[in-house]
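Input structure tokens:
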């Protein structure tokens, strides 16, 4: 079992930045790859980014590549998502999740534990 708590969401103007955090507890955090997803109103939850257990490998959705950076601090059991050059279409609830070892990384089924989400709203 693992508990995940996201924070750092808020309201920001287009072009601005936000840094999301995800605090993890209940498991050996450093053993598992992690990811961020988001869900906009009326849309399905979609993959944003993922990072390997040690942090050496990262993958991004095309829509955020070059603007978002995923990172982790295993000593602090923390996952981060630095979001720059934000656009109104980035508005969504953002979720962190623990990825299952092996398999793919871009579908919800690849993840087994989820946080409650944090709202990000980007105004134009």
């Amino acid at each position: 079992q693992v508990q995940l708590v996201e924070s750092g969401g808020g309201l920001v103007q287009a072009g601005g930045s936000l840094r999301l955090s995800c605090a993890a507890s209940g498991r050996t955090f450093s053993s598992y790859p992690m990811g961020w997803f988001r869900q906009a109103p009326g849309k399905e939850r979609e993959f944003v980014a993922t990072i390997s257990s040690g942090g050496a490998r990262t993958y991004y959705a095309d829509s955020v590549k070059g603007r978002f950076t995923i990172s982790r601090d295993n000593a602090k059991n923390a996952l981060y998502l630095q979001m720059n050059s934000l656009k109104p279409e980035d508005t969504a609830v953002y979720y962190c999740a623990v990825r299952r070892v092996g398999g793919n990384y871009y579908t919800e089924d690849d993840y087994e534990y989820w946080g409650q989400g944090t709202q990000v709203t980007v105004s134009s």
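The mean pLDDT is 95. Residues 8 and 20 are 5 Å apart (CA to CA).
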